[in-house]
Amino acid sequence: MFPRPSPVPIAALPSEHEVDVQDLMRQFARLLAADTILVAGVTQDRVYSGAAKPKIILRDINTPKTFALSQDLGPGSVACNLDSSELALACGAIEKSAQLGIDLIFISKFSKQEASGYGLCDAFRSAMLARIPVVTAVSPHYRNEWRHFSGPLSEDVSPNITALKEWWSRAQKKIILS
Asked: Which CATH number does 10-42+93-177 carry?
């Protein structure tokens, strides 16, 4: 019988309002990239342009590329303004990165779309199949769905650089041992 490879670790950061986990992920990605770790993925950002609601974008962590998730549906619209085609493009970019031998992938978050099996779910799966660790934020409203989706792969990590460094050290050891 062949030994089973150990699971690929996922760092799950709580996406609470008191800490900007998206900025934390960008900082951690820059820190690792400066240490020649190959990183890829997207983080979420809000762009304030004078509209009633900020526009939500996904920002590639390595390039100036952005994916505008918010569509302008006009004044007074109460419909969902998610641009699913932009979300699909972001997902595809992450999937492509997973095929390039990246060391660590950042996926902005697991939230409503992902809890329904859509959104960036395929990006998570691509990283797992390629045996690439992932850092993500998890909405507190979708913790149960996250646990069901990620199973034993996920580790809750405190939203700070020190905790992420410690998680990354453990993740690298798991990968080397598998």
From this structure: 3.40.50
